[in-house]
Write a structure and sequence with these properties.
A two-stranded antiparallel ribbon has the order 1-2. It has 2 domains: 237 residues, Dbl Homology Domain, Chain A; 68 residues, no CATH class. By secondary structure, it is mainly alpha-helical. It has 10 helices and 2 strands; from the N terminus they run ααααααααααββ. It starts with a helix and ends with a strand. One of its GO terms (molecular function) is guanyl-nucleotide exchange factor activity. It comes from Legionella quateirensis. This is RhoGEF domain.
Length: 326
Amino acid sequence: MISNRVIQEMLETEMAYQNSLALFVDAGNEPFYAEGPEIFQRLTTAINKFAYLSDSLHYNASVEMTQELNPTDLSELRAKRMILIGDFFTEFKTYMSLYEEFLKTKYNAKLPSETLPFKQLDEFLKSKSPNNSDSILIQPLQRGPRYELLIKDVLKRDDELSVDAPNKLIPAAREQLELLLATTRNSLVEATKREETPGYRFGDISRGLLRRGSEILFPAKSSSPVPAPVAESAQASGYKFGDYTRSFGRRAISFWSAAPVEEISSPVLISSSYNPVNVIQIPSAEPPVRIPPALPPRDLSPENTVLNGTDDGNDENDTENSFTII
């Protein structure tokens, strides 16, 4: 048995991934599915292939983690694992285009007869899980970075072995692994270069997957965990994924970030009719606070003090207020 963090994390998430794929396969047995667009059948074929590869990889990795193996058997087991990963990325490249075509077909549909199969599919999936078709069908692409880590892990462990170690990779085997790793990287990078489609930008999610892969491999270099990417339903045509949330985040930060506040300490002459009131500190948008000159005696009673909010139409700068003395 071998203690391996990369394999253990893969095993922990693989079952949930397999359950999602099985749920989509179940949808294929529903009457509405057979009456849906032709792309439904191609998706079922692809998902069945991914389910088989996932099950085979899960079994392969489980054997390494749970059984005592001699060096020869361990090397053969890892070689089979790399073949499975190679098969996965062969399907991965084709599936990227298929998933993009699915989104175009789904969100460009206008007639009720065209949109109905997609609504029925989502209703079925949502009745069984929290995910719709977009979220489930992107999961094979989400496995890419994690499977890439398995290749890197084998190469890393081989580097740590002595030259005469019995399970040391022979040069030809290592060269094949390095070639597979390069192919894997090219497949993942290609996912970030897909052209924008109506209502959805393919690369937005894939870039998040690549960042997630780096986070899994180098957890110590991150101060906070990066949440796993979640596929969002595509919006109306022309919408660029993330536009609204980025704009809202900037406004929220601008509104709630308090500017430095300093007490005004210049002496102010107070008339005999002045009634003490609580000091109000007003945040300024242009720190440091300017110190006003001394004022002549005036009636500063609360009922004669009016707070006028300035509204210049720009809600990012609405942090300034002014006082008017009447």
